[in-house]
Amino acid sequence: MECADRFTVVLKSAGLNATELGEFRHERGLYPEQVERWRQAAQDANTNSMLTMTDQKDLEKRHQQDQREIKRLQQELRRKVKALAEAAALLMASKKIQAYWGEDGED
Q1: What are phi and psi of 16, to 5 degrees?
Q2: CA-to-CA distance for 33 and 2, rounded, in angstroms?
Q3: Residue 9 contacts residue 28 (beta carbons within 8 Å)
Q4: Were both Cys, which of 38, 98, 101, 105 would link to 6 (CB 3.0–4.6 Å)?
Q5: How far apart are CA 107 and CA 105, in angstroms?
Q6: pLDDT of the chain along its 107 residues, tens only?
Q7: Model pTM?
């Protein structure tokens, strides 16, 4: 059931007495726990305070800082991947040279 449908159920069931509510739920195949959970979610959604302008600006500032940090970390990761690839290539070349010249490398 979609969120809007759940909200409609909560609204329609709000003014019903226990008998009417039982019939209402039975007609729609709903359990009492479902309706109660949806009612509680609707109430909780309204109790959450709205962000003030200061909070919104702080949130945007933190978002921008996070984006800069993500960009920096991505650049660092690319640099380290390149360095690791170069080190692997040098190691492979070193092993090939050792195999060609012998294990001790003094021939």
Answers
A1: -90, 145
A2: 17
A3: yes
A4: 38
A5: 6
A6: 677 788 888 888 888 898 988 998 899 899 889 989 988 888 887 666 677 888 889 999 999 999 999 999 999 999 999 999 999 999 999 999 999 998 665 54
A7: 0.45
Residue type, 68: R
Q: How far apart (Å, rounded) are the C-alpha atoms in residues 96 and 37?
A: 68
Residue 6 tokens read as 């759940």
Angle at 53 between CA 48 and CA 55, to 5 degrees: 60
Amino acid letter, 47: T
Axis-axis angle for helices 18-28, 32-47 (nearest 10): 100
Compute φ and ψ for 38, nearest 5 degrees.
-65, -40
